[in-house]
Amino acid sequence: MHITQGPQFNGKASKRMHVMAKPIGAVCNIDCDYCYYLSKQDLLEYKKGCSPEMSEDDLETYIRQYIEGQNTPEIIFSWQGGEPTMLGVNYFKKVVELQNKYRPEGIHISNDLQTNGTLLNDTWCEFLAENDFLVGLSIDGPELLHNAYRTNRAGKGTFKQVMKAVELLHKHKVKFATLTCVNNLTSQNALEVYRFLRDEVKSPQMQFIPIVEQKTFRSTAPQTSENAQPRQGDKRLIPGNKNSIMEPWCVSDHAWGNFLITVFDEWINNDIGKVFVQYFEACVETWMGRKNPLCTLGEICGKGLAMEPNGDVFACDHYVYPEYKIGNIHDQTIEKMAYSVKQQEFGFAKSQMLTQQCQRCDYRFACHGECPKNRFISTHDGEPGLNYLCAGWHKFFSHIDRSLSYILRHLGHPVAHGKFSDAALHSQIAQRAAVQTKY
Ligand code: SF4
Ligand code: SF4
């Protein structure tokens, strides 16, 4: 669900939601091979010759509705694309102006902006720093790996421009995180990628995204294909294999697990407490018994209604397909859409559609069957709806279980889950005591 009702704020029930706004839609100045969004230009039938830019009126409607629909001390706006910086810095000055116009007294508004970095300059970075934007910068690793897929329209790599952006972000002290796609190449070079982000980029926060797309992804929405789902371990699921149903640039399930394990071992041996890796921090929270802050590993779908420049709103950034449109800001408010039955059903389907394999899994608490977008394979027993990355996730969770439990216990925190949890430990001690009493 994309809206939560919890404690009171300002004497009323607290209300929070999250929308990824795409004020320039899928339009981008570069042309990455694996981009899941560029194809939306055809799918959503952008009107030929029309500017894909969200008009100032629509922008105002959106900002007003988004603020009015929430009752919380902080309201977070997320700006994505395509490439949002193509709109120019003045467009975002207008954004901030409108936010200030509608911001209720005492409410803090923050912004995050996802960018490929190629258009950032001093003017941009001064604006981003002054207005405290959090920037998500896409960078896939050292030059060869980054340039393999992140190319401009002439097919040239964008590495040098992105490294310039890194320099500018540091120079202007802009808050930023790096977003690194784990594909068929980067997954094979985990240490190189991680050390580059740590030592060269000095990434304040690393986010890794597994690249998973079936060959049909441009036109077919998740959960709508009638094709039989290959079983876990089927060779057709290996990217690059003959007859594979996957795009060749995808990461395989095992490569994903191995990537995370390699990075985790380096992190835990050398960098824990110094380097922030989003997945690992989220796992620590989960093992302690808290909710996973990442929607992909959470129990229900939760973060990311997506809005196109014409005001169309979709269930999630990964479900921008006509079947998953929930409305338009000109017909109903964002708040109504976020609370709608259709959207709630979408949110809860994540936990209701779990396979038996997931329901019995030792690491269900940490994984919850991962993102439904990736649930297109069947279990060894033939039950459909298993996650493509399952084997990799399971391998990773099994690998970190003992280390995380040890660290948490050492720091005096509870270990709520896993094979070495406090409950498991107490039960072992009780069993041993019973055996000793017997003898
Ligand atoms: S569909 Fe996937 S990305 Fe979207 S909210 Fe659910 S878990 Fe998150
Ligand atoms: S690791 Fe696999 S079986 Fe376990 S919850 Fe995740 S997807 Fe399901």
- Helix percentage range: 25-40%
Rounded to an integer in angstroms, the radius of gyration calculated over CA atoms is: 22 Å
Structural class: alpha/beta
Global mean pLDDT: 93
List the SSEs and their pairings.
Elements: E1 3-9, E2 12-17, E3 19-21, H1 40-43, H2 56-68, E4 74-79, H3 89-102, E5 108-115, H4 122-130, E6 134-138, H5 143-149, H6 159-171, E7 175-182, H7 190-201, E8 206-210, H8 253-271, H9 278-287, E9 305-307, E10 312-314, E11 325-328, H10 334-339, H11 341-352, H12 356-360, H13 364-367, E12 377-378, E13 384-386, H14 390-410, H15 422-438
Bound molecules: iron/sulfur cluster (SF4) (2 copies).
Residues 357-358, 361, 363-364, 367, 369-370, 387, 390, 393-394 line the site of one iron/sulfur cluster (SF4).
Protein described:
With 439 residues, this protein is an alpha/beta fold. Helix content is 38%, strand content 14%. It contains 15 helices and 13 strands. The chain has helices at residues 40-43, 56-68, 89-102, 122-130, 143-149, 159-171, 190-201, 253-271, 278-287, 334-339, 341-352, 356-360, 364-367, 390-410, 422-438; strands spanning 3-9, 12-17, 19-21, 74-79, 108-115, 134-138, 175-182, 206-210, 305-307, 312-314, 325-328, 377-378, 384-386. It has a nine-stranded mixed sheet with strand order 8-7-6-5-4-3-9-10-11. It has a two-stranded antiparallel ribbon with strand order 1-2. α2 runs parallel beside α3 (89-102) and α8 packs parallel to α14 (390-410). The longest helix has 21 residues, at 390-410.
